Amino acid sequence: MMNKIEHIGIAVHNLDQACDIYEKLLGVGSYKTEEVGSECVTTAFFKTGDNKIELLQATDEDSAIAKFLAKKGEGIHHIAFEVTDIYAEMKRLSDEGFQVLNEKPKKGADNKLVCFVHPKGTNGVLIELCQEIKLL
Ligand code: ZN
Question: How confident is the model over 68-88, as pLDDT tens digits?
Fold first, then answer.
């Protein structure tokens, strides 16, 4: 089940500058900055009520974010939905014909298991599924 929009990811060229802007916009500072080595990004998270904004800056020219920025410029990069069972959702979406981009969920930012769905099948919007990693 898709529970809710968990966050919206925004690709930025300069994370420090973007953090200043979003801090002014939202009236609150980022609560977490995290480098995600597997995705070659540094992310900063802001809370807006129940939802979050994730700013993403590339740490490598070959990363997906760097390519997105080169092609489309700054802007909304993905919408992330919180799911209860990421494996079940990946299977459901794949059975529905969506192109699920990861064979297995990956460890993403903010203590989440994540997986992406190709924007070609979703009217141009990259979709992220995320499930909180529960500490046992
Ligand atoms: Zn995200």
Answer: 999 999 999 999 999 999 999
